[in-house]
Iron ABC transporter (Paramesorhizobium deserti), 361 residues
Amino acid sequence: MRTEFVRTIADGAGPQHGDRSGMARGVIALLAVLLIATALFSLTAGASDASAWGLVKYWLFSTELSQRDRLIVMDIRLPRIFMGVLIGSALAVSGAVMQGLFRNPLADPGLVGVSSGASVGALATIIFGGTVLAPAAAVLGIYTLPVMAFLTSLVTTFLLYGIATRRGQTSVATMLLAGIALAALGVALTGALIYIADDRQLRDLMFWQMGSLAGATWTKIAASGPIILLSLIAAPFLGRGLNGLALGEASAHHLGIPVQRLKNVAIVTVAAAVGASVAMSGGIGFVGIIVPHLLRLVIGPDHRYLLPASALLGSILLLLADAVSRTIVAPAELPIGIVTALAGAPFFLWILLRRRGIVDL
């Protein structure tokens, strides 16, 4: 009887009165519609008045579209929207997977050093791509930057999990402290790399380090997009395993879940998604902690629904943050990492206060 109950919880069913699968499916459908609307809105947001409706008429009815509008929409805004969708979904899903893996809602790639580790590999490639890393660049081509960011992100994630986990139990305090230490080490290494960069690289590196979609191009999407897509395709297959892992590793093992393989796949999935995202946009924080937490309040903790919903809501939030960054100081542009930090830092403090019982909201 107990085994059947545990299997039911792992499959996300739970007691009948607590089943939120119908609501979860409805929320996912609603988020898909909102994502389309947000993408259309993002086409028109910015210092230029290029019209999304003009583009629709150009596609459907072959009407005339000015060279200026075609350039703005096709070569600037559309790549930016595609990049925002990829990165937003990657960061949100990575946060949900990490929280399921560590069994704690405070885990986030940006807070525990994974993003900083990816930044080290990306910056090293930018600075040394023509010298020390030239042989690797000759072999990997346009994939050099995302692959190097993935490798350093992977090393950081394995280090974090190895330090925080003992005898199958993950210490939250150790995880956060180890994450702070790894993030500080990453900041120190990126600072050293920035120090030795030349003047031509310096401004781009500083702007990139704060996170931005301004450099979106079809070439960058072609380089990092496949890595993110593979991670997003793999993530839903982790859903049942993460549900079982929430009951503890021993219970998950009795359910027939290959725990060690699940952990390895989850770590590689997070490292690939975060590494490729950082390679494209730089450091964008707090998406991975805001999105899964909001969704758990609405649709519950079942990862079978939480992971696809996180991908959709993460895309929506990043597109909205990008629209704010483009318009709030127009015609200049605010780095998107600043926008997400301004929204995410108070949210993170609210989660901490709520967990300690200081606030009931």
